[in-house]
Every structure is written in structure tokens, then in C-alpha cells.
Predict the 3D structure of the following.
Amino acid sequence: MAHRTSPTRPNPSPDHIELAKSRIRDILSQRIVATTRTFDHLISDTGDPRLEPHILGRARKILVRDSELETKILRANDPPWFYLPDARPADVDSHLATLAPLLQEISRQAVTGRRGQCLELAIFRALRAQPDAQYLGRFLEFDPTAPTRPKKLYSKEEPPSHIGNRAISAKRPLDFLYQHPAAGFAGIEAKNVREWLYPGGEEVKALLYKCVSLDCVPVLVARRFPRSTFEILGLCGVVLHQTLNQLYHFADKDLADRAMRQDSLGFDDIRVGDKPDARLLRFIGTTLPEVLPCARARFDKFKDLLACYASREMQYFEFSGRVRLRAAGKEEADWEDADQGNPDDNYY
């Protein structure tokens, strides 16, 4: 398959950029300081019309370029904090003195590790609630009736890293393998992160690579996805489920409560615990087995493109252009023209 240089990435519409700039200014006039994830939650998660995070990112760059937005990074590897140029320095420092340590605390490895396992446990509990479900991957020590949860991570029996002669690295297995009587195996991955997961994210590409290697339908469970992830990867048979919240471990309840407050980080979609909610139970018990046969047919149809994209042999805009044309039954040679018709599509 010949690969041409990808065209220039299209920019969001000017109207969307102006609206995003206005929303960013409004938030900072009330909150004084904010990070990227706060903007994502307050604008992208709940805004109308919805402005996805890549549009907010473009708007922030323009505001910074035009000196309408200031940034401050408190220590190496910390995300930037944003504030308006006319904000009182004392107010900026006062808010940062409270919010920056909290953001650093919820980003500690021990906390993120427990948080990551919470969603895996919720999926495991949802799988286990299905009497006839065939799946691989389990937490042997986990007792859902226990009154408390230990701070340490549960040891996990990972699913096998091979299906017959097909294999992936045993160091990076899928979270679960789910077997469907008609569609075969599906590979389930859980990503309990605040970021919206775009098609170009490393987590997404890693899932695609593992599932293509094992010939199993990709299933991704995460807090939020943009339109481009649903549109392009959905055409390819990738099954997506939005949790619409982020799970925190019981041991981190105090951190969760502080992060949820509107006078703090404002992440009011946080939920403490590892119990699957009704949406996740319905997805695992009803939706997933219903959609997998169709997803398998799509996955088989687009598997070659997924393989090239996941292995970085093909850039996103060629991949998405070819996917659109193939789905429409058209020749893929004109993939550049197909992609240019989607100016708000972005893989970041």
C-alpha cells in the first residue's frame, strides 16, 4: 500500500474558536486559575454547543500567543496553570497555593495506580455478574462483600498473551479477553483517566495493535471520547463505552471530595468505589454481546488499515480518509480529499 505525505491538519471553525476563547475567559474570571482538565470538564463535558478539547487547545494557544492568557508551571512535569493577564498576582498565588498541591497529590503514582485498578475492578464485577459470560482475566483476592478495601493493589491474573499462534508481549496484556459465541474474542481495555481519548492517543494505538495482533475485536472503556473516536474507530468495528465519570479508590475519598468541590478543581463527575453502575452493567451484560457480531464484521473489513495505523506505518489523516472512503464503497486513492471535508476532525 503506497503512502503519501499527509495533508496539513485542518483547523477548527473560526466560530468554534471564538466561542471557546469566550468560555475560557469566563471560567478564569470566576476561578482565577485553571488547568487544561478543568477547562475540558467545565466546557467540553457540559457545554452547549459542545466544544471538544482539541478546539479548546487551539483557542488557548491563540490566547497565549496574543497575550490574552498567562501561564505558570510550578515545577517540572506539572501541567500549566492558566490565568488572565489582569488577575491580581495575590489572587493567583493564593489559589495556586491551594489547588496546585491537590493536583500534585491526585497525580501521585500510588493514587493513579489505585484509580486505574478501580475501573478494571468495576468491569470485572460486571463480567462476573453475567452467569454465562466467558472471559479471561480476574482478581483472585478481591472480595466485593469486604467492608473495606486495602490501599495496596490487588494481584491480578492477567488474560493470556496469546490466542493460538497469535501473540503479544506478556508484559503488556489486555485487561480482559471476552469470548462471544459468534464473534470470537474481544479485547477489553479500561482507561480511568480524565483526558478525552482521541484516535491518536497512545492508549488507543496500543489497544489497536494488541487486538490486531490477536485478531480480537477492540473494546475500549473510558470516561469520554470525542466525535472523531466514535466516528472513525466505530466504522472500523472498535466498540466504545463512555463511563461519564472517573472512579477513585476508597482510600482516596478525601482527595476525591476535595477535587470535586466547585471552589477547588471542580471535577464533580468523580465517583468513589469500584462498583459498576447501571450503565456499565447494561453495556457488559446486554450491549456488548449484541453489537459484537457486527463489530467483528467491521473489524475484519478494516483490519489492514488498523494494523498500518497502530504500527505507525500510516498517519492518522491518511487512515481516517481511507476509512471513510472504504466505508462508502469508494476508491481509497483520493483519501486526501475525503479527509479535508471534515475540518473539525482531530486525532489529538
In short: Residues 106 and 272 are 13 Å apart (CA to CA). The chain is about 45% helix and 10% strand.
